[in-house]
Amino acid sequence: GSRTVAAGTPRRLRPILSLEDFEPAARCLLPRPVFGYVAGGCETDASLSGNRSAFADYGFVPRVLQGVAGRSQATTLWGHTWASPFGIAPMGMCALAAYQGDLALAQAAKEAGIPMVCSGTALTTLEAVRQAHPDAWFQAYVPGEVARIEALLERVARAGYGTLVVTADTAVSGNRENHVRVGFSSPLRPSLSLAWQGVSHPRWLLGSFARTLLRHGMPHFENSQATRGAPILSRDAVRDFGARDHLGWEHLRLIRRRWAGRLVVKGILSVPDAQAARDCGADGIIVSNHGGRQLDGAVSPLRVLPQIVAAVPELPVMMDSGVRRGSDVLKALALGARFVFVGRPFLYAAAVAGQTGVRHGIDLLQQEIHRNMALLGARGLEDLRDGRVVPL
Ligand code: FNR
User: Fold this and answer.
1) How far is the CA of 322 from the centre of ligand 1 (A)?
2) Cβ atoms of 311 and 348 closer than 8 Å
3) How far apart are CA 29 and CA 25, in angstroms?
């Protein structure tokens, strides 16, 4: 039977039949600069569109009559069993797109038994996110100076996080021309057109932005040592963004010495970097091109996944960028990923219907995985690793 639209689904979510349906709904709802910030890639958007077409270049070779009635998509990673093999990727400034966006993502993820990664550029404190989801992970943009790195690690540990994700693909920010075109900037610059965008999107203005201002004041960056407390309209908010281009593997080794929890390096696309992460003592890596937002033309994670998995067999290799369907998740796992992350669709879901929207999105992806496992003849996710996906 069809379990796609559960009884009691709010009216607004009834037309949302797959993760991709959240995007047009969010486009209507959000002011252009906010939607553009989330949706955009960089330069020609080659990586952004390549992330989708990569999945289309692989096909399934299903098995039949495998007795799949008791199939399960549960996944164990470092001794913790998650309900599904996917989680919510770290995204900055979620609270700009959705009222208390980070908390909506965290609560829905917790409820569904999947991980959510709190962003280092969140407008919500990492402590509050950890409270909403005790098994959430924290993602850091490593600050320039050693003293700041140490202070951040101490704060993250004190908040109770067990897993730290270090994003490594942001020596500088990508060239997001799209931000200029849509009128987004960091810091945000007040302007007539920005005000007009707000007024012409009243549901966002009243339900999200005004509500945030009234209850919590102007959104602040909360999780960087340098920019903590800097409102999004202030130059101080971007004070340390430029100072990361001198970071090297020695900084990762330093973090490894000071961080006792699980350490994950995000933004790897090459075999030598995967090996370097392993040699520095990382517990896992996320193969990612940052959702096509950093180096335009960077290869899609899916295309380099098999060789990276083969090069570091001792490490759980995870991936993100372009995952939209249960079939995408299953293709990535069949190519050797242990876990995947999904970004934009869950933020659109939070914008459209808060925690309920995110939960709906998670449910849809879980249902697609459950159904497609049956059609593939897989009882467990480990069954996928026997050539059930081939390049087309
Ligand atoms: C991101 N991403 C990101 N990554 C990170 O490590 N720290 C961050 O703060 C952010 N911020 C951020 C904001 C927004 C609006 C987006 C869309 C993305 C990248 C993110 O973690 C992930 O790599 C991609 O979003 C995955 O691609 P998809 O699923 O969005 O295609």
Assistant:
1) 11
2) no
3) 6
User: Is there a catalytic annotation at residue 80?
Assistant: no
Q: Which residues of the chain have pLDDT under 70?
A: 1-6, 225-229, 235-243
**Radius of gyration (Cα) for the chain, nearest Å?**
20
Nearest partner of 85 among 376, 391, 373, judged by Cα: 373
Residue 72 CA to residue 69 CA, distance in Å, equals: 9
263 burial type by CB count under 10 A (0-12 exposed, 13-18 middle, 19+ buried):
buried
Residue in 183, 205, 78 with CA at minimum distance from that of residue 135: 78
d(CA 20, CA 361): 9
What digits encode the pLDDT tens for the residues 76-135?
999 999 999 999 999 999 999 999 999 999 999 999 999 999 999 999 999 999 999 999
Strands 80-82 and 75-77: antiparallel
Is 120 a pocket residue for ligand 1 (Cβ < 6 Å)? yes
Alpha-carbon dihedral 105, 111, 117, 120, rounded to 10 degrees: 50
Asked whether the beta carbons of 88 and 19 are under 8 A apart, the reply is no
CB 225 within 8 A of CB 123: no
* Residue 104 to residue 95: CA distance in whole angstroms: 9
Cis peptide before 187 (omega within 30 of 0): yes
What's the whole-model pTM score? Answer: 0.96
Say yes or no: CB of residue 92 within 6 Å of ligand 1: yes
Answer yes or no: is 67 a known binding residue: no
* Domains identified in the chain and CATH numbers: 11-391 (3.20.20.70)
- C-beta separation of 194 from 204 below 8 A: no
